[in-house]
Design brief:
Radius of gyration of chain B: 21 Å
Enzyme class (chain B): hydrolase
Protein name (chain B): CPBP family intramembrane glutamic endopeptidase
Number of strands of chain B: 1
Distance between the termini of chain A: 23 Å
Shape of chain B: globular
Shape of chain A: globular
Keywords (chain B): Hydrolase, Membrane, Transmembrane, Transmembrane helix
EC number (chain B): 3.4.-.-
Structural class of chain A: little secondary structure
Number of helices of chain A: 2
Order of helices and strands of chain A: EHH
Radius of gyration of chain A: 13 Å
Helix content of chain A: 10-25%
Oligomer: heterodimer
Distance between the termini of chain B: 56 Å
Order of helices and strands of chain B: HHHHHHHHHHE
GO molecular function, one term (chain B): hydrolase activity
Largest sheet of chain A: none
Largest sheet of chain B: none
């Protein structure tokens, strides 16, 4: 886990690793972070940590969590938010 | 949300059963129990029963946050991942200066312009004060954790635009909040709907539930204490008939004043409105510039 970045400073480190490490269109049931983990790259954050890779508001705190109800449904353990490529 | 409903329902039923068993164990005759109708808010037993069944929503929300979302329970409180206690006292003073004055004025109108009469302190006044002061703030906090905490985040999280998400969450949770108070006339529903909007506004302004909890707690404590002191003429369940519009106008003005003061106090109290960011990059070799 990296260093927490203060919100007051307005500095938010983006999750990296999604770009270039994402699973291809044909990779059903796997996620970019799974692939990244297998390749020794970035992995998802452990449950219980606040994975707000950018400062976010109170109402979006739940959204920015690397949790999604469809993950267990799809057999996928990664987050759609933290795998979003940086613009 | 389904898990929250199931967990809360289970805990509420357990609380109700425990309450009845406790009364039976204390030797009370079930035939002498007070009427559990929700209109009997000035009865300490009814209020304790109702408050206890609502307070269990707090551990329900926390449990769902931890189990279903894998997040520490504190994310249901504020952007710091905990309840910011330093804000409670200042917001309480603001609420007393606005909502307190509004409630006092509304009660005065009820007894002067309206046709209600003071019936004096209710029986068991002392017990009522104990129950109100000890459990009503927690009951208020529980409702805020459900409506402005869990539900607001769950609804806003589905919407891409943060502003649109906040607006939709505020409207939906205010409607649910008002509807959750049971059958009521239109004016009472609108009064509670406005209360929900005011609570959502201060949550949005301050980045946490503290100001909303204080708003709710000050409102409920004052209303129940006044109802216990002055009698059943003080409206606890609905906008009083006869002076409805005037009562609602005073109520709306006091809520708007609270939201305004909370907004203006931000430069002094500096409530955090953004979460801290975490560097999600794995530690690894760092490419240093060649010398």
């Amino acid at each position: 886990m990296g260093t927490p970045v203060g919100a007051a400073a307005g500095v938010g480190a983006r999750a990296v690793g999604a770009a270039g490490l994402g699973a291809g269109p044909g990779s059903v049931g796997t996620c970019s972070l799974d692939a990244a983990s297998a390749a020794g790259g970035p992995v998802g954050t452990a449950p219980g940590t606040p994975p707000h890779d950018q400062p976010t508001t109170f109402l979006r705190a739940m959204r920015s969590r690397d949790w999604a109800w469809w993950r267990p449904v799809l057999g996928c353990s990664c987050s759609p938010w933290s795998t979003r490529p940086s613009p | 949300m389904l898990l929250l409903a199931v967990v809360y329902a289970a805990l509420a039923v357990m609380t109700a059963v425990a309450g009845v068993l406790g009364l039976l164990a204390s030797g009370s005759d079930l035939g002498t129990l007070p009427d559990m109708g929700l209109e009997e808010f000035s009865d300490p037993w009814v209020l304790l029963f109702l408050n206890a069944s609502l307070i269990v929503a707090i551990p329900s929300v926390w449990m769902v946050w931890v189990v279903a979302h894998g997040m520490p329970r504190g994310w249901s409180s504020s952007v710091l991942g905990r309840l910011r206690r330093r804000l409670l006292l200042p917001y309480t003073l603001l609420a007393l200066a606005t909502l307190g004055v509004g409630i006092g004025l509304a009660v005065l109108l009820t007894f002067t312009v309206g046709d209600e009469e003071m019936t004096g302190p209710v029986s068991s006044y002392g017990w009522l004060l104990v129950v109100v002061l000890l459990t009503t703030p927690l009951q208020s906090a529980a409702e805020e954790y459900v409506f402005r905490g869990y539900l607001s985040q769950a609804i806003a999280g589905w919407i891409r635009s943060p502003r649109a998400g906040a607006l939709v969450a505020a409207l939906l949770t205010a409607a649910l909040f008002a509807a959750a108070h049971g059958p009521q006339d239109v004016l009472t529903f609108l009064d509670r709907f406005a209360f929900g909007l005011a609570a959502s506004a201060v949550v949005w302004l301050t980045g946490g539930l503290e100001a909303a909890i204080v708003l709710h707690a000050v409102n409920n404590v004052l209303v129940f204490v006044l109802a216990g002191t002055l009698g059943d003429g003080v409206a606890t369940a609905e906008v009083p008939a006869g002076i409805g519009l005037l009562f609602a106008a005073v109520s709306l003005a006091s809520m708007a004043a609270y939201v305004t003061l909370v907004a203006r106090s931000r430069h002094r109290l500096l409530p955090e409105t953004w979460t801290a960011a975490v560097d999600l990059r794995m530690p690894g070799p760092v490419a240093l510039p060649a010398r």
